[in-house]
Specification:
heterodimer; A: about 110 residues; mainly beta; seven-stranded mixed sheet; about 0% helix; B: mainly beta; six-stranded mixed sheet; five-stranded antiparallel sheet; 11 strands
């Protein structure tokens, strides 16, 4: 299986601020994704992180709110901008290796 | 809108019994199907993948796929209390741009009682 790490593992933030989450994957991973999972809910795909170009966002998610970078094959960041309490969630980085998707440990975000 | 549906449960089975988890999907073009297990407070981990009609066995787990009926199931034999978790069904489908993505069910909560 692919090794995926994320940081921070959790954070508590004030509304109106921004938080950047980092994701590091091992070299087996080809595609990288960012998900959100709200309490009691399933996974919602935010975007596909593309190496060296703009991320591909799913319906309902925009770059101004969730800017994503992927400067190289094994690293990506997701920023949650101008946060509100509704952004409180678990954010998960995911990578695909050999057609199988693996997940990082997640970042628990609480916005006050 | 492509959909994946699961019974949310909770599904409660006694230790040693067979747990049967079901999932239906709407996109007839889907080719890849996955079962993930998610413990509370943890991220999902892959249990089984299946691509062809029929059964696929791995230890105590068996995935069953029927593309004509658009359902995929997961059987857990000799259920253990450690199997208690939420089981997520995921189906590969077209995503934004030229990417493919996984469509996720809401998950079935399984409780195995000692």
């Amino acid at each position: 299986s692919a090794v995926i790490s994320q940081k921070p593992s959790r954070d508590i933030c004030q509304r109106g601020t921004s938080l950047t989450i980092q994701c590091q994957v091992d070299s087996q991973v080809t595609m990288m994704f960012w998900y959100r999972q709200q309490p009691g809910q399933s996974l919602t795909l935010i975007a596909t992180a593309n190496q060296g170009s703009e991320a591909t966002y799913e319906s309902g998610f925009v770059i101004d709110k969730f800017p994503i970078s992927r400067p190289n094959l094994t690293f990506s960041t997701l920023t949650v901008s101008n946060m509100s309490p509704e952004d409180s969630s678990i954010y998960l980085c995911s990578g695909t290796a050999r057609e199988t998707q693996y997940f990082g440990p997640g970042t628990r975000l609480l916005v006050l | 809108q492509k959909e994946v549906e699961q019974n949310s449960g909770p599904l409660s089975v006694p230790e040693g019994a067979i747990a049967s988890l079901n999932c239906t999907y709407s996109d007839r073009g889907s080719q890849s199907f996955f079962w993930y297990r998610q413990y509370s407070g943890k991220s999902p981990e892959l249990i089984m993948s299946i691509y062809s009609n029929g059964d696929k066995e791995d230890g105590r787990f068996t995935a069953q796929l029927n593309k004509a009926s658009q359902y995929v199931s997961l059987l857990i034999r000799d259920s253990q209390p450690s199997d208690s978790a939420t089981y997520l069904c995921a189906v590969n489908a077209p995503g934004a741009g030229n990417n493919r993505k996984l469509i996720w069910g809401l998950g079935t909560s399984l409780a195995v009682n000692p």
